[in-house]
Amino acid sequence: DTGVSQDPRHKITKRGQNVTFRCDPISEHNRLYWYRQTLGQGPEFLTYFQNEAQLEKSRLLSDRFSAERPKGSFSTLEIQRTEQGDSAMYLCASSLPGGSYGYTFGSGTRLTVV
Amino acid sequence: AQTVTQSQPEMSVQEAETVTLSCTYDTSESDYYLFWYKQPPSRQMILVIRQEAYKQQNATENRFSVNFQKAAKSFSLKISDSQLGDAAMYFCASRRGGSQGNLIFGKGTKLSVKP
Question: Would an 8 Å CB–CB cutoff place B30 in contact with chain A?
């Protein structure tokens, strides 16, 4: 197992376009989390899954954002009608049940909206 | 709601010296966990150390140790014998106990290590 994988590493898109990111967690981890990190800030929670169930969504996750984890393995995060304010690093993490032992993070997807 | 505050945007330490990074938190939970994460320039977050709030003993991982002051809601990270590879952003985070909840991060402290 090579850890948490995220694809792509970088994405440049024009304002108004849709983008989709993928995250492959550690196989033994049933929890998967999405965070957003802007320059000079700590990661901000977006949403998390336990297996295929989406258990919590942040108020940061507007209607233009949707996340799925259809078979309880990989997850996708889609942003529709991107805005310049969506430019950020999108981090995925996974954990064992409960998450009290900490999360394992991926390298992130850097989104730039031009 | 939980909050995490890191009051030092940047810190600097001489190689082989010791540095302490500060973190305070606020929570109404009695059961919670605290973490320090390191984020090198490659951007992947790495868990440095973890503390369970119900344990009075401060956690230690090799050159990294914490000073957990529960009453003061303080959770500082001490790095001993600093190495060039310790240069990174360091984030303090908290998580409430139980099966739910997620990590809440501070804004981070950028640590520079001078040779």
Answer: no
For residue B31, is pLDDT > 90?
Answer: no
- Checking if the pLDDT of B71 tops 60, the result is yes
Read off the DSSP letter of residue B59.
P
The per-residue pLDDT for A61 is 84
For B68, the token pair is 């957990």
Alpha-carbon gap, residue A8 to B32, rounded angstroms:
34
Residues A91, A63: Cα–Cα separation, whole Å:
19
Residue B42 touches chain A, beta carbons under 8 Å:
yes
Nearest to B91 among A42, A98, A108 (CB): A42
Residues in chain B: 115
Q: Which residue has the higher pLDDT, B23 or A99?
A: B23
A102, B50 Cβ separation under 8 angstroms: yes
